[in-house]
Amino acid sequence: MTLIEQEACNKIIQTYYKEIYSYCFVKLNYRHHSAEDCTQDVFVIFFQKYEKLDTTDNIRLWLYRTADNVIKAHLRKNPTTDVSIEDNPEVMDIPAESSFPDDSADSQLDILTDEERKLLEAYYDTDYGQRSAAAKKMGLSLAAMYQRVHKIKNKLRRNR
Amino acid sequence: MKETDLNIADMFSDEIMLSDLRQLLDEEMSKSEKERDYDAIKEITAAMVELADDHVPEPPPAETILGKAAEKKRQKFGMTVRRWATALSACFIAVFALNCYTLVTYGENIIEAVLKRTRSGFTLDLSAEPSTPVTTEPTEPSNEITKGQEMAQQMAKVMGEYCWKKAVYPYLPTELPEEMAYNGVFELEEQHYEALEDSKDFSFTFTNGEQYIRINIEKYKSPKNLPEVCIPSDNYEVADEVVNGTHIYAFTNGPRVTAVFTRYSTVYTLSAYNISADGIIKLAESFMPYER
User: Cβ separation of A153 and B14 shorter than 8 Å?
Assistant: First the structure.
């Protein structure tokens, strides 16, 4: 392979590696090493067949398709047992019905900004279907909203 | 710190958020490839990685990936070559075994055996014919000569003179069957000679206008050189007569009939048009050593 082609390959890796890794990580039930191996396999397969691909082929789509196949093959060799969300002890500890902490919890929530408090309220007071709408109201996607909630949670934990 | 303080962070379950995002991802993936929003998928999975407190590893350098890809290509090529070699070896062994079997069973190699057996019909191994001398019951000499004998003598004279010039002294017809004798005079239409490596071949064609007969005489150097004769029998009726220890095979296909027989190391083939199988067998039976 020429230097130019090698640089093109490097660019593809840099562009898509994180995305494909994240996809594999989720599909493989959050297993880091399995995801890393599968992601590498995806790109190895891609560069094996790189020369046969048409220039008009959608690389991103091709990579996702290959990722699906690699993940399937990996799971066939390494079957996993999924834990049901309902059996998760963390979930079971959450009261069935409760409300957002009242003012008596202000001491911890004081470290949050107004925006962060609103976000937490929106998250806590809604369920899945409503959260999507709530996120949209705030100009966020559901995924972005959850990322922020997670960051806020970590912030609260650090400041216990 | 209040007890509630400790619980606030724990109230925002990552599992629930992950479950929600998983549901979102599944909804997106359930769409057709054309309808999927891969940017949304990218965002969802990135969020899930963060929620799971994982980090994306640094991508390996292109050289590492390319090296592994090249290695896999080489392995695949090697595997393909090995598979072909195995398949070819298996075929070769199978053909070799089959060849041995046909040689032992039929005395011929597999190609000859297949060719012969795919042809409809059968073969005559004329070399296996016991070429016993013709012996006839001595008959009382008769002064009367039949029409069939007369015409046969004329044909025999023409054929004999031609063959003797090539130092071949074949059996010749001595009597034509009635269906030939009383149907006009048979005149020589064509005669032909060819010297081959192991035989001298003669061909004579006689016709009376309505019927014709071609007489082929193949004189081989020895009985060992006699060939097998393949006779297609899909539409042929076959008659087989034994005359004086010699098989005469007659094959009928509509108006055409062929008779084949041997005398010592000579093969006689009589091909006729508008003559019956009985007639041609009678003609074949009449072939005798010609007295010059």
Answer: yes
> What is the pTM assigned to this prediction?
0.51
Residues in A touching B69 (Cβ below 8 Å): 44-48, 50
Chain A residues with CB under 8 Å of B21 CB are 142-143, 146
- What's the pLDDT tens digit per position in B221-257? 887 778 776 555 555 677 777 777 778 888 888 888 9
- Residue in B275, B281, B88, B103 with CA at minimum distance from that of residue B181: B275
ipTM, interface predicted TM-score of the complex: 0.80
**A96 vs B123, which has greater pLDDT?**
B123
- Runs of H (alpha helix) within chain A: 3-27, 32-48, 59-77, 89-92, 106-109, 114-124, 128-137, 142-158
Q: Which residue has the tokens 């019956």?
A: B276
Nearest to B21 among A50, A88, A143 (CB): A143
Confidence of residue A36 (pLDDT cuts 50, 70, 90): very high
By the CB < 8 Å criterion, does B49 face chain A? yes
